[in-house]
């Protein structure tokens, strides 16, 4: 942690605290925070400024600083939805919308490295955090690797199920994120107006033996989700 500036480190610590607090809870005063983290007022203000810019907190005149309605921020490690929500102090759940076998189309077959028409399981779910819709997700896996997945309980963590039931451990993903405007059916699941902005992430995941085990399309409400990356300048 020594290689990141103090205020960014503090910001992460404050983010963890904020994740434990309900929306509109008041943060401790500047005096209390500088004493607790043993930082200067300037460092604290920089950290709070970053949180304000990210929309995680808001200020009310001289009254104080408060926790904003929660927005989930995701970093670059390969985590599951369940883990993402739990680390932010929220309770994940899922509603199964549809689960069925279908043949791979040409693009899916290419991404999986399989023949076209190879049977896949298509699992469509609504992912919720503290009971609020956060993400609509369609996951496809080869039935050859996970033969009875369609009869398993699909309302929990899929990555747990991959590991426990099929001994498949996810190791890496290629992800592409794009901004979209929601079509009516998905907007309805996410309980926002049609054409609302959303972040759509397509993930192609490989396991520890480098075989592709999942193609997922996750569509997140843009008002509740963002991606935060720590990036480093390459040393020359
Ligand atoms: C995330 C993944 C998705 C994966 C799911 C597993 C992204 C963009 N997508 O939503 O590919 O299937 O986690 O979560 O991160 P689970 O284990 O909680 O079902």
Automatic annotation (TrEMBL):
Could you tell me the superkingdom of the organism this chain comes from?
Bacteria
The yes or no answer to whether the keyword DNA-binding is present is: yes
Known Pfam families for this protein?
Answer: GntR, UTRA
HTH gntR-type domain mapped to chain residues: 4-70
Q: Coiled coil located at which positions? A: none
Q: What SUPFAM superfamilies is this protein classified in?
A: Chorismate lyase-like (SSF64288), Winged helix' DNA-binding domain (SSF46785)
> Which PANTHER family does its entry note?
MANNOSYL-D-GLYCERATE TRANSPORT/METABOLISM SYSTEM REPRESSOR MNGR-RELATED, MANNOSYL-D-GLYCERATE TRANSPORT_METABOLISM SYSTEM REPRESSOR MNGR-RELATED
Q: What is this protein called?
A: GntR family transcriptional regulator
**What is the organism field in this record?**
Kribbella aluminosa
């Amino acid at each position: 942690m020594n290689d990141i500036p103090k205020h960014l480190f503090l910001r992460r610590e404050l983010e963890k605290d904020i994740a434990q607090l309900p929306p509109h809870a008041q943060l401790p005063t500047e005096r209390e925070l500088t004493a607790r983290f043993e930082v200067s007022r300037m460092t604290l203000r920089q950290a709070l400024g970053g949180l304000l810019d990210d929309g995680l907190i808001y200020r009310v005149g001289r009254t104080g600083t408060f926790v904003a309605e929660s927005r989930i921020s995701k970093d670059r490690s390969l985590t599951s939805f369940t883990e993402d929500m739990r680390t932010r102090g929220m309770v994940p759940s899922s509603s199964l919308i549809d689960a069925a076998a279908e043949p791979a189309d040409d693009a899916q077959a290419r991404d999986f490295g399989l023949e076209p028409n190879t049977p896949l399981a298509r699992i469509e779910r609504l992912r919720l955090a503290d009971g609020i819709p956060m993400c609509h997700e369609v996951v496809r896996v080869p039935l050859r690797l996970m033969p009875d997945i369609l009869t398993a309980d699909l309302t929990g963590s899929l990555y747990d199920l991959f590991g426990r039931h099929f001994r498949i451990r996810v190791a890496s993903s290629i992800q592409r994120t794009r901004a979209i405007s929601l079509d009516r059916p998905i907007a309805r699941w996410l309980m926002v107006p049609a054409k609302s902005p959303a972040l759509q992430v397509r993930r192609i995941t490989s396991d520890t033996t480098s075989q592709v085990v999942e193609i997922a399309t996750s569509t997140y409400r843009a008002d509740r989700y963002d991606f935060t990356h720590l990036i480093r300048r390459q040393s020359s």
